[in-house]
UniProtKB/TrEMBL annotation:
Alphabetical GO biological process terms: DNA-templated transcription initiation
Short name of one Pfam family: Sigma70_r2
Domain of life according to the entry: Bacteria
Species the sequence originates in: Candidatus Zambryskibacteria bacterium RIFCSPHIGHO2_01_FULL_46_25
InterPro entries named in the record: RNA_pol_sigma-70-like, RNA_pol_sigma-70_dom, RNA_pol_sigma70_r2, RNA_pol_sigma70_r4, RNA_pol_sigma_r2, RNA_pol_sigma_r3/r4-like, WH-like_DNA-bd_sf
Family: Belongs to the sigma-70 factor family. ECF subfamily.
Keywords for this protein: DNA-binding, Sigma factor, Transcription, Transcription regulation
Single GO term (MF): DNA binding
Domain RNA polymerase sigma-70 region: 21-88, 122-169
Annotated protein name in UniProt: RNA polymerase sigma factor 70 region 4 type 2 domain-containing protein
Length: 177
């Protein structure tokens, strides 16, 4: 299903269309936010503020639909800016509490292994860490990650490859020692 019909309804002030849009997108946006904040309550607060900002942007005509990917990127940028406002002076911490919010289907994985990998991801530089999170925790395509991070798609693919190489080296080194 394309979001165009729902977005058009939101532009016209249709609250039911906005509710449906929220239901379709909230889980992915929540995971994106949850990976960057200290606890579930903060993530829920930011999620609420993100959708309030989205409603204002759509009903105010500040977004014009061209594709679902562009819309999702727009929504991710709103969420990212909300998180940035909250953590302007604090380093975000990924908690292992409620790990299923951050890593989908984590029930089938060993929590110790997940914690180990997350620790290694934290050792990457900020932009590489972000690319890995968006690609693997959020399942976003390179094109959407590029829009979200305001970089070219080719640059994101290179960063992704280099980040994976660094991560493999870190994992290999840590397991050997």
């Amino acid at each position: 299903m394309t979001f165009q019909r729902l977005i058009d309804g939101c532009v016209d002030g249709d609250k039911e269309c906005f509710r449906l849009l929220y239901e379709e997108t909230k889980d992915g946006i929540f995971r994106l936010i949850r990976a960057r904040v200290r606890n579930r309550e903060e993530a829920l607060d930011i999620l609420q503020e993100t959708y309030i900002d989205l409603w204002k942007a759509l009903s105010g005509g500040k977004f014009s639909y061209s594709s679902d990917g562009e819309f999702f990127s727009f929504l991710c940028i709103i969420a990212r800016r909300r998180v940035a406002r909250l953590y302007r002076f604090f380093k975000p911490v990924v908690s292992l509490e409620d790990l299923s919010d951050v890593v989908p289907d984590s029930d089938s994985r060993d929590p110790g292994e997940i914690a180990f990998v997350l620790d290694m991801v934290e050792k990457l530089n900020a932009i590489d860490r972000e690319v890995i999170r968006l690609r693997y925790f959020e399942g976003l395509e390179f094109k959407i990650i590029a829009r979200f991070l305001e970089q070219k798609e080719g640059a994101i693919k290179i960063r992704h490859h280099r980040a994976l190489t660094k991560l493999r080296e870190l994992l290999k080194y840590e397991k050997e020692n």
